[in-house]
Amino acid sequence: MGQNTLIFVSLLASLATSVNAASLFGPFPNAKYPEEKRIHFTPFHIITAVSNQGFTLKPVSGRLTHNSFELPDSYPLALVMNNYLAQFKNLNAEVLFQCEAEGCGDGWAMRDQLAPLITVDTSYPGAYVAAKLKGAGGDVYSSIYAFHREGSYTKVQLVTLEVIPEPLDLVEANSNFLQQGTQDVAMADRRSDDAQDSADHPLLGRMPGNYITRYKQTNLTQVPVIVGISAAGIQTQSLDARLTEIRYQMPERYSLFEINSNYAAAAQKLNAEQVFYCKGTGCGDDDALIKAMGLFQDDAEDQWQEYQLYRLSRPQGDVYFDIYSQGRYDATPGDTTLRVMELSVLKTDRIAINLDALNDAITQTGKATLDGLLFDFDSDRMLPESQPVLEVLATYLKQHPAKGFYVVGHTDDKGERAYNQSLSLRRADAVIQSLTQQYHIPASQLTAHGNGEYSPVASNENESGQALNRRVELVLRSDME
């Protein structure tokens, strides 16, 4: 008995006699790297003819099984395909079409037609056969494609499709849902996660479920806002204003669309005028935009950003507010920063100190409050408006080089006591550093001290009293005279 006969007999023994078995064909002898893919229901095209005009196709649909494996180089293409043809005959199948090599038409067209389930390697000769079989449950179609890579292997790929009605009862529909009203997604309250000593601005509250990750207030500063974006770059306008900056972390259940639409709706309720708006890549590079605004915020994705700037008019001075929101690569929300800017002017009358007044205060009481020394909110960074006070102070110290002084920082009683003490000391140090570096006052003449909240000069129960308690004093040291 020859080798081909032995293979044929063993294959016959392994094949099922019913096309309703789990697989139409059993395993091929010496098959390697078997793979199987099942698709519950799909349309599929069977090739039934080929001509210069292309392929004639028979559309079918049903439950599909795709098998593939490799055979050793000793299995020629004709032997493989003849074995399957023999089994089609054994199963009383109707062979719809078969071809080999050039008879299959253009190799690239064959590749495009059979993709993506069946891979055609146009570098090697291939063969194709398609057949129709009768099963107990209905028609079954089978197509087989194989190519032989000389000196390496024979690749075999089989598609079996059982014709069944499209299963359209897989999804259960709940008609009771249509009788219900729209229900909002519940958002847990996370105010307890707010940054210390932070609060919503009275003008615009928060959306449910978000919390504050950064809070900053500055009595008077210059705030850059975005007023235009063009090929030339980002155009900004600087506002002299009282600034409240609040950065919110939004729940992932919100979309950026919902976040920005809600802020836009709130602006409309306030009858605010929209000054500028941009969205996505229309805002340009998000890192550049963040830097232009001076925000403390990480960059995210250019396509998931949105900026809105509004203006409100009032007798006491205009109010601007802007909103910058970001999203991650999957469009879930990241940080949203709200800034409220109350336009103001520098109150030069706050600087009540002059050389004569400073000299009189030290002579009479041994200390003087350095009104007009202004710091950024929650920071030891002095504002530019403090410069005239430093000049008066430097002049006085140079006139009294033999005297020593304490520079004492004070705070209100908001926040932790230890933090307030540290902040007051850092502010005192900042004053000394400016005097020694800018005006060359000897460091030995000055000693920094932080008194925190322990020596108020007014009540901390109101904002005006708190403002008076946030101060720096110059105190004469009699032990150095």
Q: Approximately what portion of the residues adopt beta-strand conformation?
A: 35-45%
Class from secondary-structure proportions = alpha+beta
Give the domain tally: 3
Please write the string of helix (H) and strand (E) elements: HEEHEHEEEEEHEHEEEHEHEHEHE
Q: How are the strands of the biggest sheet laid out side by side?
A: 1-2-6-5-4-3
Assign an overall shape. Answer: elongated
Fraction of helical residues:
10-25%
How many alpha or pi helices?
9
Terminal-residue CA separation? 124 Å
Total strands: the figure is 16
Keywords: Cell outer membrane, Membrane, Signal
Protein name: Outer membrane protein-related peptidoglycan-associated (Lipo)protein
Signal peptide: 1-21
Subcellular location: Cell outer membrane
Give a verbal description of the structure:
This protein is of the alpha+beta class and 481 residues long. It has 3 domains: 161 residues, no CATH class; 153 residues, no CATH class; 133 residues, 60s Ribosomal Protein L30, Chain: A (2-Layer Sandwich). A 6-stranded antiparallel β-sheet has the order 1-2-6-5-4-3, with helices on one face. It has a 6-stranded antiparallel β-sheet with strand order 7-8-12-11-10-9. It has a 4-stranded mixed β-sheet with strand order 13-16-14-15. A hairpin with a 2-residue loop joins strand 7 and strand 8. The longest helix has 22 residues. The chain is elongated. The N terminus is likely disordered.
